[in-house]
Amino acid sequence: MPICKNCGVELESNIARCPLCLTPLGDKAQKSDKVDPIIPETKVQKNQSPLLLELFSFFSAAGAIVITAVDFAYGANLTWSRIPLISIIFCWLFVFLIHHLLTKPYLLVILETVNFLIFLWFLDRFIPEYYWFFSLALPIILVVCILFLLVILWIRSFKLSTFLSLSVGTLAAGIFLLCLEVILNIFHQKNLMVSWSLVAFACILPVSGFFIYYQLRINKKGSEFKKYFHI
Questions:
Q1: Structural domain includes residue 181
Q2: In angstroms, rounded to a whole number, what is the distance separating the alpha carbons of residues 196 and 177?
Q3: pLDDT per position as a tens digit, 101-110
Q4: Which of 31, 122, 195, 197 could in theory staple to 181 by disulfide, Cβ–Cβ 3.0 to 4.6 A?
Q5: How many structural domains are present in the chain?
Q6: In which domain, by residue range, is 126 found?
Q7: For residue 141, which of 161, 164, 123, 155 has the smallest C-alpha distance?
Q8: CB distance 15 to 2 below 8 Å
Q9: Is residue 108 domain-resident?
């Protein structure tokens, strides 16, 4: 079979032009001055096989099987192994959600919060002497979740720079400390007084202001500050 002198494609004997580059065929046909066409490379899909997740899943399943077998072998029942088992499940779900939802931060924070709440609820059920889930763990985790979502929303909505993002994050940490002391005082002493969290919040405010100040200096001075902080 004839071969096109321009692109090297095998051709049928009864055609006058190459169907790929349209170069005329035959003895009198001059070779085209065109550069050899570059055939677009087909994007090779990266191996999406989550090797680390698969290894983590394997060791998690192996550990769960061993723990269950040991507990069941000595008592024909599941007693002490319940807490290690739910811990393994919690850790696996934690890694699984991060692996699949890293590009969806809102959904990731919400599902990780649900995962953590379920884990703490089971711990509360398996340690019946002192119930603390609804009065202590639930409000703390909800505060953390809400603050995380607000910080992410604020940063993404206003497209904040690195220093402004740090300022928002430190301010959120101070608010969390205030909420944490309130929740602890309600749980232990049934009052809304705050003391140490106010001191911590007062210490955090200058740090948050420091980040805002340096961002303003960067905007004013430009590259002079950028070369020092590599931003």
A1: yes
A2: 9
A3: 999 999 999 9
A4: 197
A5: 2
A6: 51-131
A7: 123
A8: no
A9: yes
pTM to 2 decimal places? 0.70
Question: What is the C-alpha to C-alpha distance for residues 29 and 23, in angstroms, rounded to an integer?
Answer: 8
Q: What is the pLDDT of residue 12?
A: 72
As given in the structure block, the two tokens for residue 80 are 């002490």
218 within a domain of the structure (yes/no) = yes
* Secondary structure (H, E, C), the chain: CCECCCCCCECCCCCCECCCCCCECCCCCCCCCCCCCCCCCCCCCCCCCCHHHHHHHHHHHHHHHHHHHHHHHHHCCCCCCHHHHHHHHHHHHHHHHHHHHCCCHHHHHHHHHHHHHHHHHHHHHHCCCCCCHHHHHHHHHHHHHHHHHHHHHHHHHHCCCHHHHHHHHHHHHHHHHHHHHHHHHHHHCCCCCCCHHHHHHHHHHHHHHHHHHHHHHHHHHCHHHHHHHCC
Polymer length in residues for the chain: 231
- In 3D space, the residue among 195, 180, 115 whose CA is nearest the CA of residue 144 turns out to be 180
